[in-house]
Design a protein that fits this description.
The complex is a heterotrimer of chains A (118), B (132) and C (251). Chain A is mainly alpha-helical and 118 residues long. Chain A contains 4 helices and no strands. The chains are: A mainly alpha (118), B mainly alpha (132), C alpha+beta (251).
């Protein structure tokens, strides 16, 4: 039987999972609770001007792309396995859809971030 | 004597058979929330590229009670992800010996959880710092 | 047998292919004392109540690996599980999960054995060594590196614990990976490359989703979950470095 290509997706899963485990809770709190409701953070932290400046800096682009893309690749791998565990056994279509969506998300994020210029 | 007719038992609903499996499924289900949050961020980035009015629309949506409830649920699942991630992570690592003694999985878990606390604190500090 | 008056109900999932379409439960009332194992309960049933009940056993002391079965829904060695822990409830005993049932509590093991042979579970010396050169020397740390995984008694409880194996009987499983690593990690061994092909396949380590229940049920604290997940990193590193490795890495 041939060697599996799982290492590619497992590596992306691992990177996304590690990133989510290390800074995920902080990010969710900041963007979803702290800033919108002015808790511990000035309410204009995520203003258009601030976020545009952040995403025009190459570090901001790298950070946003890493978070969005890696979270999606992590979720895609786990959701594909979850579907298998629930008894959906169409392995190839599931992988195609899950990884395909993650790929699409990555492309959209990358293209959009690049289009924002510097 | 023997008729050989091996009987294969069903695997339907296997994950309901004991608490350990249910906890495993809970861990895997966190992925749905990670995906949902990534999607929220992706929408934000796209709205950013569509100009100030579009982005402000996204910001306004974050201030609704529905968004708050959603993010609180997502926050809880992310915390559970962090917990379950560092609990399972040691099994992927090679056996490590320090001073001739085997490094225990619990040590690695605690180190990982500590790193997460430090990393989250660092994110808070950096965001506070940049925004002022 | 001393008559203590305590009786436990043992419910066995019977299967006699010559008369049963599907497995059926049968209950026996077994008098017991606190020192009796589930295996001794089964032996009482076979000796005094129903001679047709079939089950495997040998050493009675958790080293041969023969008496693995589902006790109260969990994979256990019958000789290492005690009736007193289930009294006064009813105790259900079934054949080891995720394996086809041959008869009563006996499962088909030939696939397990065949797959075990496939991982080359024996030392393949790094270099040939003459008798005159004397014995191999190992440091305590080199020996510690292999001790844990060498404790495996092939009882198959880890396979009964693994739903990925249950849904895909071609999956290599964590038990074999522990044994494989025991040989790969032995300082005397040079056979790693020969063992890696089944590891890198879809049904190799990549069938594992890190549930970890296998290590919970292992009666010898082998921690097979660690063994198989360790190889995910090795398989991944080899996957990416094989293009720059002389000899092309593992298959």
């Amino acid at each position: 039987m041939k060697r599996s290509n799982e290492p590619i997706f497992w590596s992306l899963f691992g990177a996304g999972g590690m990133l989510a485990a290390l800074i995920g809770p902080a990010l969710v709190f900041i963007t979803g609770v702290g800033v919108p409701f002015g808790l511990f953070f000035p309410p204009d932290t995520m203003s258009y001007a601030h976020m545009l400046a952040f995403s025009q800096h190459w570090l901001g682009k790298v950070f946003l792309l890493a978070v969005i893309a890696l979270f999606m690749w992590h979720a895609a791998h786990r959701i594909a396995i979850l579907l298998h565990d629930f008894g959906v056994h169409a392995v190839a279509p599931i992988k195609f859809c899950c990884y395909g969506l993650a790929f699409l998300g990555t492309v959209i994020a990358g293209y959009t971030l690049l289009s924002l210029g510097s | 004597m023997s008729i050989q007719r091996p009987y294969v038992r069903s695997m339907d609903g296997w994950w309901k058979r004991n608490a350990y499996y249910v906890r495993y499924m809970a861990r895997e289900v966190t992925a749905l929330f990670v995906a949902a949050y990534a999607l929220v961020l992706l929408v934000g980035v796209v709205r950013l590229s569509q100009g100030e009015a579009a982005f402000n629309g996204w910001l306004q949506a974050l201030k609704t009670p529905l968004s708050l409830a959603f993010h609180l649920v997502v926050l809880a699942t992310f915390v559970y992800h962090t917990w379950s991630w560092f609990n399972i992570m040691p099994i992927t690592m090679p056996m490590m010996f320090i001073g001739g003694k085997r490094v225990q999985p619990g040590t690695i878990t605690r180190a990982g959880l500590a790193a997460a606390v430090v990393a989250c604190a660092a994110v808070f500090v950096i965001v506070r710092g940049i925004s002022s | 047998m001393a008559d203590t008056g305590k009786i436990i109900e043992i419910e066995i999932l019977r299967y006699r292919p010559e008369q049963d379409e599907a497995p059926v439960l049968q209950t026996y009332k077994v008098p017991f004392t606190d020192d009796m194992s589930v295996l001794q309960g089964l032996q009482y049933i076979k000796d005094y109540l129903d001679g047709t009940v079939s089950f495997r056993w040998s050493c009675r002391m958790a080293i041969c690996g023969s008496c693995g079965m589902m006790v109260g829904g969990k994979p256990k060695l019958a000789c290492k599980t005690f009736l007193r822990d289930y009294y006064p409830g009813k105790l259900r005993v079934e054949a080891l999960a995720h394996f086809p049932v041959e008869r009563d509590l006996i499962v088909t093991v030939k696939d397990y054995v065949k797959r075990l042979e496939g991982i080359k579970p024996y030392l393949i010396p790094k270099e040939t060594r003459t008798l005159e050169e004397g014995e191999y020397l190992q440091t305590p740390q080199q020996r510690d590196r292999v001790m844990q995984f060498s404790a495996c008694i092939n009882c198959m409880l880890c396979y009964a614990a693994c739903p990925q194996y249950g849904t895909n009987p071609k999956f290599i499983g964590s038990g074999h990976m522990a044994i494989l690593d025991r040989y790969n990690s032995d300082s005397r061994d040079g056979g790693r490359e020969q063992r890696m092909e089944p590891v890198n396949e879809e049904d190799g380590v990549w069938g594992c989703t890190a549930i970890g229940y296998c290590s919970v049920v292992c009666p010898k604290q082998v921690d097979p979950a660690h063994a198989i997940n360790k190889y995910k990193i090795e398989s991944t590193m080899d996957y990416f470095t094989r293009f720059v490795t002389p000899g092309g890495g593992d298959k």
